[in-house]
Amino acid sequence: MVTSVTNLSRSGLSDWIIQRVSAVLLAAYTLCILGSLALNPEMNYASWRALFDSNLMRIFSLITLAALCAHAWIGMWTVSTDYMTSLQFGKSATFIRVSFQIGIVLIVAVYLIWGVQIFWSS
Predict the structure, then answer these.
(1) At 78, is the secondary structure helix, strand, or coil?
(2) pLDDT tens, 9-58?
(3) Which domain holds residue 106?
(4) Which residue, 91, 95, 97, is CA-closest to 79?
Protein backbone atom coordinates (compact mmCIF):
# COMPACT_ATOMS: atom_id res chain seq x y z
CA MET A 1 0.00 0.00 0.00
CA VAL A 2 1.24 3.48 -0.87
CA THR A 3 1.17 6.00 1.94
CA SER A 4 0.56 9.69 1.43
CA VAL A 5 3.82 10.82 3.03
CA THR A 6 4.87 12.71 -0.10
CA ASN A 7 1.41 14.04 -0.92
CA LEU A 8 1.22 17.79 -0.27
CA SER A 9 -2.48 17.84 0.39
CA ARG A 10 -4.49 16.11 3.08
CA SER A 11 -6.91 13.94 1.15
CA GLY A 12 -8.02 12.73 -2.24
CA LEU A 13 -10.92 15.17 -2.12
CA SER A 14 -8.63 18.17 -1.67
CA ASP A 15 -6.43 16.88 -4.51
CA TRP A 16 -9.51 16.60 -6.69
CA ILE A 17 -10.65 20.13 -5.80
CA ILE A 18 -7.18 21.61 -6.42
CA GLN A 19 -7.05 19.86 -9.81
CA ARG A 20 -10.46 21.20 -10.83
CA VAL A 21 -9.87 24.76 -9.59
CA SER A 22 -6.46 24.88 -11.24
CA ALA A 23 -7.95 23.57 -14.50
CA VAL A 24 -10.55 26.36 -14.44
CA LEU A 25 -7.81 28.94 -13.79
CA LEU A 26 -5.71 27.56 -16.64
CA ALA A 27 -8.73 27.71 -18.97
CA ALA A 28 -9.54 31.29 -17.91
CA TYR A 29 -5.93 32.36 -18.49
CA THR A 30 -5.90 30.71 -21.91
CA LEU A 31 -9.12 32.51 -22.84
CA CYS A 32 -7.65 35.79 -21.58
CA ILE A 33 -4.53 35.41 -23.74
CA LEU A 34 -6.55 34.29 -26.78
CA GLY A 35 -8.96 37.19 -26.24
CA SER A 36 -6.06 39.64 -26.11
CA LEU A 37 -4.72 38.24 -29.35
CA ALA A 38 -8.16 38.34 -31.00
CA LEU A 39 -8.85 41.92 -29.93
CA ASN A 40 -5.39 43.08 -31.03
CA PRO A 41 -4.64 41.34 -34.34
CA GLU A 42 -1.78 43.78 -34.99
CA MET A 43 -0.13 42.97 -31.67
CA ASN A 44 3.60 43.62 -31.64
CA TYR A 45 6.27 43.37 -28.97
CA ALA A 46 5.44 46.77 -27.47
CA SER A 47 1.75 45.99 -27.02
CA TRP A 48 2.54 42.48 -25.72
CA ARG A 49 4.96 44.00 -23.23
CA ALA A 50 2.37 46.61 -22.21
CA LEU A 51 -0.14 43.84 -21.55
CA PHE A 52 2.26 42.06 -19.20
CA ASP A 53 3.50 45.27 -17.56
CA SER A 54 0.08 45.62 -15.98
CA ASN A 55 0.14 44.50 -12.34
CA LEU A 56 -3.26 42.86 -12.80
CA MET A 57 -1.91 40.68 -15.61
CA ARG A 58 1.25 39.90 -13.65
CA ILE A 59 -0.79 38.79 -10.63
CA PHE A 60 -3.15 36.76 -12.83
CA SER A 61 -0.13 35.17 -14.53
CA LEU A 62 1.49 34.30 -11.20
CA ILE A 63 -1.72 32.80 -9.82
CA THR A 64 -2.03 30.78 -13.00
CA LEU A 65 1.60 29.68 -12.77
CA ALA A 66 1.04 28.53 -9.17
CA ALA A 67 -2.11 26.70 -10.29
CA LEU A 68 -0.16 25.02 -13.09
CA CYS A 69 2.53 23.90 -10.65
CA ALA A 70 -0.06 22.50 -8.22
CA HIS A 71 -1.89 20.80 -11.08
CA ALA A 72 1.33 19.26 -12.38
CA TRP A 73 2.45 18.10 -8.93
CA ILE A 74 -0.84 16.40 -8.09
CA GLY A 75 -1.03 14.80 -11.51
CA MET A 76 2.52 13.45 -11.38
CA TRP A 77 2.11 12.34 -7.76
CA THR A 78 -1.00 10.41 -8.77
CA VAL A 79 0.79 8.81 -11.71
CA SER A 80 3.77 7.84 -9.57
CA THR A 81 1.70 6.32 -6.79
CA ASP A 82 -0.63 4.50 -9.20
CA TYR A 83 1.95 3.12 -11.62
CA MET A 84 5.28 2.94 -9.79
CA THR A 85 4.42 -0.01 -7.60
CA SER A 86 6.24 -3.12 -6.50
CA LEU A 87 4.42 -5.05 -9.23
CA GLN A 88 6.32 -3.11 -11.89
CA PHE A 89 9.59 -2.32 -10.13
CA GLY A 90 9.97 -4.95 -7.43
CA LYS A 91 11.62 -4.08 -4.14
CA SER A 92 13.11 -0.86 -5.51
CA ALA A 93 9.66 0.64 -6.25
CA THR A 94 9.71 2.96 -3.24
CA PHE A 95 13.16 4.29 -4.09
CA ILE A 96 12.19 4.85 -7.73
CA ARG A 97 8.89 6.48 -6.79
CA VAL A 98 10.41 8.83 -4.21
CA SER A 99 13.29 9.71 -6.55
CA PHE A 100 10.79 10.49 -9.30
CA GLN A 101 8.71 12.63 -6.93
CA ILE A 102 11.78 14.54 -5.72
CA GLY A 103 12.73 15.17 -9.34
CA ILE A 104 9.24 16.48 -10.10
CA VAL A 105 9.28 18.75 -7.04
CA LEU A 106 12.65 20.17 -8.11
CA ILE A 107 11.46 20.77 -11.69
CA VAL A 108 8.21 22.38 -10.53
CA ALA A 109 10.11 24.59 -8.04
CA VAL A 110 12.57 25.71 -10.74
CA TYR A 111 9.73 26.55 -13.13
CA LEU A 112 7.88 28.46 -10.40
CA ILE A 113 10.94 30.49 -9.40
CA TRP A 114 11.82 31.09 -13.05
CA GLY A 115 8.25 32.21 -13.80
CA VAL A 116 8.25 34.66 -10.89
CA GLN A 117 11.54 36.03 -12.13
CA ILE A 118 10.18 36.45 -15.67
CA PHE A 119 6.92 38.10 -14.64
CA TRP A 120 8.43 40.50 -12.10
CA SER A 121 11.62 41.45 -13.90
CA SER A 122 11.68 44.86 -15.51
Answers:
(1) helix
(2) 567 888 999 999 999 999 999 999 999 999 999 999 999 999 999 999 99
(3) 12-120
(4) 97
Report pTM.
0.83
Give the model confidence (pLDDT) of 97-106 as tens digits: 999 999 999 9
3-state SS record for 19-66: HHHHHHHHHHHHHHHHHHHHHCCCCCHHHHHHHHHCHHHHHHHHHHHH
Residue 90: which CATH number? 1.20.1300.10
Distance CA 43, CA 40 (A): 5
Residue 6 lies in a domain: no
The total domain count for the chain is 1
